[in-house]
Automatic annotation (TrEMBL), chain A:
This is Thiolase domain-containing protein. It comes from the Bacteria. It comes from Streptomyces ortus.
TrEMBL record, chain B:
NCBIfam families: PRK08313.1. PANTHER family: ACETYL-COA C-ACETYLTRANSFERASE, NON-SPECIFIC LIPID-TRANSFER PROTEIN-LIKE 2. InterPro entries: Thiolase (IPR002155), Thiolase-like (IPR016039), Thiolase_C_2 (IPR055140). SUPFAM superfamilies: Thiolase-like (SSF53901). It comes from the Bacteria. Gene3D superfamilies: 3.40.47.10. Coiled coil: none annotated. This is Thiolase domain-containing protein. Residues 238-367 form the Thiolase C-terminal domain.
Length: 360, 383
């Protein structure tokens, strides 16, 4: 079995695997549910898959953002849902749950814990997500102009078209392929035949954009033999890395994603081919950028879940990519899969994980 | 894991001369200068702050990537309420301890003047009780419960405030420098949330704190003494439930016990030389003395009253002036951790405790539900 690429401080790494994954049915609105109520069934499901109880878990880490909840410290309520009594070893990142998983992975590497519960959730329905995400931008020079997430993605899409990397029919094909794949995914929000729609912001049509919705996901990680006890075919994390780029769009080449490429290198992606890729590409045009950065050939099954074009619960969508890739391995549909998560405008920050099943 | 660089800004009510990016960069550059390293030596950045609503910037690590030299590197953003500064340092520690990276920059900040923290804490939410009275209103009843439970005289809180504000005069980075402070002035200050007086509360500060963390190889190259981590832990418990002890939460006890176990501390009162403790309201010093195992239940106030926690006492607490003198909320926990490291490096200047070999840094947050702590030493751990 191959080890991840050498790091700046090479040392003994433990084998760590995804052993369980659960997600909600992602929906346009969930008015009748609080965030905690939305999350609770997912927590119960993921624990039930392994037979673990909250008190058995060595470390817990979550990802969410106060700006969706509209209140400070919103994650404290979710913690109550976890049932943190007796007190637990726990942390939280104000990021997509994929980065919570990364924090949990580092915790397991230290040997301080053998199992970790990772969860993430987001409800976009109470507000206008396009407006909310503008608050991520430089607060002095850019955010006051309220450039929204679809407009920024459209800038990227137009740059790709101008560079000859894609065209509108090709983008439509990405969206169609994703939503056709999602017909087999009972959790997906948009499935099957979805019209290209009108232009949202030229050149992106509504069909090129992700659905807006609410959802949650949870994963359990385990180290070494513990993983084999908890799961018949664990999805071993062979490498995981993430990188960030400059914030200003003017200093970035929007047709490329050097941070994705670097993260992939450090995660050991290019050592051997993968058979599956779960990409967090909320816009059809972003899949074009990621395929190039990750050097994905036609033989790779990209987003068999339907990807973020089929369901994009903000803050959980990246963690879901890891969970979906792991599930493919656990069910024997994949032997080596890549999962990707993104954060920030136009793919500013990217995480790549390489997962493998035991040889068959 | 070792701390080889520490940097803080001069904490003040409003840093109108710098942006958020300028503020964090100032602290980071000071930490790099202390370690005699450059941005290129940093493998990853871990950043923390309290709620995004405090400045009105959502997920500010995205905007701050350039200012912190993080472009092309991994950048993580931690948020665990008031304990976040400590948690952020511990997440960064794990990157080194787990051998993922060799040298990591960790930083925490709050620029409270950009917005209004009281507003940020008081957004109306359906079906949840509003925190209309601010943090003091939440914690005052628990202070009252401590006084009733232990029979502590109501003068103890003012002693803590008087001590911490005098200690702050020796710390050039502290926000409040009250040169004319007297015990009488503290006791005569207005009652805000009975029994908490105005002078027994923390200020609202703009500020940032940064540390450079590295492995043994990195520490060997350090031009100045390193602070070595001997133990670190986080614990959380629910906000509200019937069995919760707000005076001495179980999560705090468990967190301390885990740190002491890792560090081989049998008797914290004897084995630990000084403590940087998260005391946003003065009465939390005696409360946490008990919660952290420095005093038996009901006895913490006696340590404070007898002068044990003074700068020249047997167990100095908050040598820097503490949260009572400086409170950029998201950074406050990291400042505790960093000040503990400064002490064991012998670099705390006028507020240095002579011969400090093992010092505890402590942070808490939420409704006394999130705890993070580390114990640092002048010597590397033997195991």
């Amino acid at each position: 079995m191959q080890r991840p690429a050498p790091r700046s401080a090479p040392g003994p790494l433990r084998d760590i695997a995804v052993v369980a994954f659960a997600q909600t049915d992602h929906r346009r609105t969930s008015d009748e549910l609080s965030e905690v109520e939305m999350l609770m069934p997912v927590l119960h499901q993921v624990l039930a898959q392994t037979g673990l109880k909250t008190s058995d878990i060595g470390f817990t880490c979550s990802g969410s953002t106060d700006y969706l909840a509209g209140r400070a410290f919103s994650f404290t309520m979710a913690l109550d849902g976890v049932g943190a009594w007796p007190p637990i070893s726990e942390s939280h990142v104000e990021m997509d749950g994929a980065w919570a998983l990364y924090e949990a992975w580092t915790k397991l590497l230290t040997g301080d814990a053998d199992t970790a519960l990772v969860y993430a959730y987001g409800k976009s329905s109470p507000g206008s997500i396009r407006d909310v995400l503008t608050r991520q931008l430089d607060p002095y020079y850019v955010a006051p102009l309220w450039p929204d997430s679809v407009a920024l993605a459209a800038l990227q899409a137009q740059a790709l078209i101008d560079a000859g990397d894609t065209d509108e029919p090709a983008l439509a094909a990405v969206a169609t392929r994703s939503r056709t794949a999602a017909t087999d995914n009972s959790h997906a929000q948009l499935r099957g035949s979805v019209p290209r729609g009108e232009y949202a912001v030229r050149p992106l049509r509504t069909g090129d954009c992700p659905p807006i919705g609410d959802g949650a996901a949870a994963v359990i990680l385990a180290a070494g033999e513990r993983a084999r006890e908890l799961c018949e075919r664990p999805a071993w994390i062979r490498g995981i890395d993430h990188r960030i780029e400059a914030h200003g769009l003017g200093v970035r080449d929007l047709t490329d994603s050097p941070s994705t490429r670097l993260a992939a290198e450090r995660a050991g992606l290019f050592e051997r081919p993968v058979d599956t890729a779960e990409l967090h590409a909320p816009f059809s045009s972003q899949e074009v950028v990621l395929r190039k950065a990750l050097r994905l050939g036609d033989g790779v099954d990209v987003n068999p879940s339907g990807g973020a074009l089929a369901a994009n619960p903000v803050m959980a969508a990246g963690l879901i990519r890891i969970g979906e890739a792991a599930d493919r391995i656990r069910r024997g549909h994949s032997d080596r899969a890549l999962a990707h998560a993104t954060s920030g405008p136009c793919l500013q920050q990217n995480l790549v994980a390489v997962l493998e099943g035991d040889p068959r | 894991m070792a701390v080889v660089g520490i940097g803080q800004t001069k904490h003040v009510a409003a840093r109108r001369d710098v942006s958020i990016a300028g503020l964090v960069r100032e602290a980071a550059q000071r930490a790099l200068a202390d370690a005699e390293l450059t941005w290129a030596d940093i493998d990853a950045v871990v950043i923390g702050k309290a709620p995004d609503f405090f400045e009105g910037v959502m997920m500010p690590e995205l905007y701050l990537a350039d200012a912190l030299g993080a472009v092309g590197k991994p950048m993580l953003r931690v948020h665990t309420a008031g304990s976040v500064g400590g948690s952020t340092a511990l997440v960064a520690t794990n990157l080194v301890a787990g051998r993922v990276h060799g040298t990591v920059l960790t930083l925490a900040y709050e620029k409270q003047s950009e917005s209004n923290a009281m507003w940020g804490l008081s957004l109306p939410i359906p079906f949840q009780q509003p925190l209309l009275a601010g943090a003091g209103g939440f914690f005052a009843p628990h202070v009252r419960a401590y006084m009733r439970r232990t029979g502590a005289p109501d003068t103890v809180g003012s002693l803590v405030a008087y001590k911490d504000r005098r200690n702050a005069l020796k710390n050039p980075y502290a926000h409040l420098h009250e040169h004319d402070i007297t015990l009488e002035k503290v006791q005569a200050s207005p009652m805000l949330w009975d029994p908490i007086r105005y002078s027994e509360t923390c200020p609202s500060s703009d500020g940032a704190c940064a540390m450079v963390l590295t492995d043994r190889a990195g520490a060997a190259r350090s031009p100045r003494p390193a602070a070595w981590m001997h133990g670190g832990a986080m614990r959380s418990e629910p906000t509200l439930f019937a069995g919760k002890d707000f005076v001495s939460p179980q999560a705090g006890k468990d967190c301390a016990a885990d740190v002491y176990r890792q560090a081989g501390i049998a008797d914290p009162r004897r084995d630990i030389d000084a403590v940087e403790m998260y005391v946003p309201f003065s009465w939390y010093e005696p409360m946490w003395l008990e919660n952290l195992g420095f005093a038996d239940e009901g006895e913490g106030w006696k340590l404070t009253e007898s002068g044990v926690t003074e700068l020249d006492g047997d167990l100095p607490v908050n040598m820097s002036g503490g949260v009572l003198s400086t409170n950029p909320i998201g950074a406050s926990g990291m400042i505790r951790f960093a000040e503990a490291a400064l002490q064991v490096r012998g670099q705390a200047g006028e507020h240095q405790v002579e011969g400090a070999r093992r010092v505890l840094g402590h942070a808490y947050g939420g409704g006394s539900q999130f705890f993070s702590m580390w114990l640092v030493g002048a010597e590397p751990p033997t195991s």
